[in-house]
Protein: DUF1993 domain-containing protein
Amino acid sequence: MATELYDLTVPAFIRGLNALSALLDKGAAFAAEKGIDPATLTGAQLIADMKPLTAQVQFACDTAKGTVTRLGELEPVAMADTEQTFAELQARIAKTIALLEAVPRERIDGREDADVVLKVPGADIPFTGRSHVLTFSLPNFYFHLTMAYALLRQAGVPIGKMDFLGGV
Structure:
């Protein structure tokens, strides 16, 4: 039996977002324990031309919700990208997980060979459903999760590989 496209996306995104939420909880607790302004962590960057932690969380959420709405031919869900605090980032993650949980399996499965177009400023990037998931969505999602983990870890938050993996 082949793995269905739904199984490659929705559960993976939910698991990753739950792990991200737990990482943020640890970041907020670390800031409180050490007397660090939480904005120091949420605004952390690896290098000046790279987006901060807030954007990494936003991009991870956007990738998950964008993937399922494109695959399922659902109405896009806009989020304002205004989150600055741990609580606001957690709310965005929760909203994204709720959206993912509401997507019916039958809207995703069977769309492996469907045309999917990613619209970016100045270009439309064509994919099949399968190539969109495997060559863009999943790598992009895990990139932003990894960056969020790295930013918190670099700041000294006591997290490890099992935290990233969601406590397998």
In short: The chain has one domain: 5-165.
